Amino acid sequence: MVIIMAKDKIIGFIVMILGILIAIVYTMGSVIDLWFSTWGGDPLWAHNVFGEFIGSILSWELFVVLPLWLIVILISIIAIWIGYSMLTTPAPVPLEELEEELAAEEEAEETS
């Protein structure tokens, strides 16, 4: 079975999928990687949580990565929202059909 979609719905679907993929890839490559490189190197990190926690909060890397991550996530959420809106919005009614309906309504009002 072939599913035929309108061009704007296909574009919306592509934008939505790209937004999701960018959000996942950037999260895995930046914030999660930084988290594991900060905490994952020492197998006994749980014994030194507070000392390393303060050091990781004041790390320059977190101050660089976190704002960039938030910007990319916000842009991705906007792209996902635009793609979803394009995907779920029904196609507009052609102007000719609207004119025909208005003409038919005017004729019905004149005859009654």
Question: Could you explain the architecture of this structure?
Answer:
The chain has 112 residues and is mainly α. Helix content is 79%, strand content 0%. It has one domain (7-111). It is rod-shaped and about 80 Å long. The protein starts with 6 loop residues before the first helix and ends with a helix. The relative contact order is 0.16.
Write the layout of secondary structure elements.
Layout: H1 7-39, H2 49-57, H3 60-88, H4 95-111
Helix pairs in contact: 1-3
Task: Pick out its properties.
112 residues, 79% helix, mainly alpha
Q: How many structural units, i.e. domains?
A: 1
Q: Topology as H/E string?
A: HHHH
Mind describing the biggest β-sheet? none
Secondary structural class:
mainly alpha
Mean pLDDT reading: 76
Question: How helix-rich are the residues, as a percent range?
Answer: over 70%
What general form does the structure show? rod-shaped
Distance between the termini: 48 Å
Poorly predicted runs are 42-50
Give the strand content. under 5%
Total of helices? 4
Task: Specify Rg, calculated over alpha carbons.
Answer: 26 Å
Number of strands: 0
Give a quick precis of the structure.
By secondary structure, this protein is mostly helical. The protein has helices at 7-39, 49-57, 60-88, 95-111. The protein has four helices and no strands.
